[in-house]
Each structure stands twice: as C-alpha cells, then as structure tokens.
Amino acid sequence: MLLAFQAQAAESFRVHKTVLVTLTATGESQTVDANCNDAVAIILPEDKTYIQGVEISVKVPQIVAEWHDSVAWFIYTGIQPRPTEKRIDYSGERVHTGTFGVSLRKTIQIPLLKNNTIKRDAYSEYLQLVPPEEDGMIFFRMQLAMKGTPNDLTAAKFEITVRPLFIDKGRLHLTTKAPDSAEVQPYTVFIDGKSVSDVEVMLLDTGVHTLSLVSDSYRNEVRTFTVSQAKTTDLTVQFRDITPLLLIAAPEGTIVFLDGNEVENLKEPVSVSQGEHSVRFVIGDYEVVKQVSAVNGRTYTVSVNLDATISESE
Description:
This protein is mainly β and 314 residues long. The chain is built from two helices and 26 strands. It has helices at residues 62-66, 151-155; strands at residues 3-4, 11-14, 18-22, 30-34, 39-43, 51-59, 71-80, 89-99, 105-111, 124-126, 137-144, 158-166, 169-177, 188-191, 194-196, 204-205, 207-214, 221-227, 232-238, 245-249, 255-258, 261-262, 270-271, 275-283, 286-294, 299-303. Strands 1, 2, 3, 5, 7, 8 and 11 form a seven-stranded mixed sheet that branches. A hairpin with a 2-residue loop joins strand 24 and strand 25. It is elongated, with a radius of gyration of 34 Å. Mean pLDDT is 91; it is low at 1-7.
C-alpha cells in the first residue's frame, strides 16, 4: 500500500549509486538501470514551458515482485548537496514513500503544476505534491526494506523510464518581412479572430488556427497554421505593397490601354494609384472601355470575353 507523508525534517542517507537523468524541454523518454539501493536524480530543464509533470515507470524484477514489499521507494525534496554520479551521501526531506508490492510495473506521475491536465488512470499513481521550483529536480530513491532476502534480490536490475508529461499546447514563431526588404511598419495580429499583443509568448491549443495581419501600410494577410503539442511552429509572412493592382484578362491578340497607355505585358499585375482608371480593349474593329475605381490594398480583375451564338432557320 502506498502512503503519502507531509514533508518532514531533513534526513541524511546513503545510496549505493546515483543515476542522473537530464530531461530536455521537448525531449523524449529516457531509460536507465538501477539496483534496489540506488537513487535516480531527474534533472529538470530550465525551460519548463511545455512540461506539466514527470512520469517514472519502473519495470520491477520478478524476484522483487515475489518478495513483495521487500523494496521501498522514496521521493525527496531539498536534496543537498547537488547530485552527481559519484556522490552517495545526501540529505533531504522525504515527501512520499511506498513499496512495489507484487506488481511487475510501477508508474508514478509527479505534477510540476498544481493546475494541470495530466490524465490519470488505474495503472498509475498520481502524487498529490509539486516539487519546489528551486529544486530543479525530482529525486527518486530505492532501498531494501526487508531483512532475510536473497542476495539475488539486491543485485536485481530495475529498468526505470522517465518521460516528461507535456501540456496540450504549442507556440507560434512569427516572422514578417516588408516589401523590398524595407523596415516593417506597424501591424496588428489576430489569431482566431482575437487580437494578440505578443504572439510568441502565447500558448495555443494544438490543432489548426487562423492568423490575420492587419496594417495601414500593407495588404491584409491571412494564413492557416497547425500547432503541435509542445512544439513551436515557424511561420513567415511576406507583406505586400498596399498599392492597388489590376489583373487584365483578354483573348490573345487584344491590345489593352490603361489610362491611354498601352499595356505591354498582360501576364503580370499592373500597379495603379488609388482612384479612377480607364481600361480600353481593342480587338480588330471591336472596342470596349471599362472604368475601375481603385482602392488601396485591393486587387481588381478586368476581363473581356468574346462569345459566338448559333441560330437556326428554315
């Protein structure tokens, strides 16, 4: 039976060996071997933005399960001195203890945040404690707790897997570029329709989101992006000039005049000033004129089509 204890006065103890596990901010699980009188010092990353807890999964040797309750495990806080692989003497406050019982697998979940979304299940032990931030580690110790056990039990290997438990969120890293490599002018960011003051410090739910950039100096830009768990999504947006653009579509052989000047390349958009413009299409003896009222930040398509009709008579 697993029992929880309030933190008590620091106690001094000795371990046979210290195993260090250093977690990274977005790292994968790590597996190490230890014996029943060893300690595992789990060093937490400085950047714990995405980490809400740590899971310790212990594969218990058969002989330990047969001699149930023969090996106890402990969680300590305030460990002194700082653990190293060569250090065996420590002091610290024991905040949780228990035994492995008859099970061949023991999974322990330790939250780093009081308000967390760690999924709990019948196969894991969730500890109602949060290690102090200043510790920067979780200290897990095992110790033989029964006399008269065989020597094989002391030498038995525990396989211990440590993995970070991530929040179901990520971040967006936004890079903006101005036209012609100029200095980027002010703009407003909206994510999913809500104004954001600093997108790079905002945690977003995993999934698809919509980014809108609104500016008086550039065309409005809209992008969709996907946020993955515990990851930062990079997105680069190239701003476009606010000058109105005309896209001209006409049959081959058409001569087009914009404000009286012939347009030589109909495949590229034409920049125009804000205001009224005249577009004249000349196809042989056929001529049509269209007026365009251009507004900054807009693109207009002006097209002319020729059609043929068939009639039948007796």
